[in-house]
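Shipment paperwork, digital attachment
Item: protein structure file
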Amino acid sequence: QVQLVESGGGLVQAGGSLRLSCGASGNTNSINVMGWYRQAPGKERELVALISSGGGTKYSESESMKGRFTISRGNAENTVDLQMTSMKPEDTAVYYCNANQYGRDYWGLGTLVTVSS
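Attachment content:
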């Protein structure tokens, strides 16, 4: 089992920046990919960004997110960060950390990000 804990959510003004962090614990061997998804009120959960164990990245194709979010490995092992810049009210959502191990997905409880206009 893998446990994921997110941190860094909160309230930010439009145009501001926020950095989310996620740490994995438990049986973290062979975690292939870690990343972030988000779910806005009344909408489906959507991909934000993924990063592989080798450092490869994949970002959402959404035009609203392009160029504003950067995913990176944290300083500690099995951690992942999401740097969000030029934030918009439509970025308001619960952001979930995800880890994939042997084809199985694990999820954190989520951290709420609210962007005020």
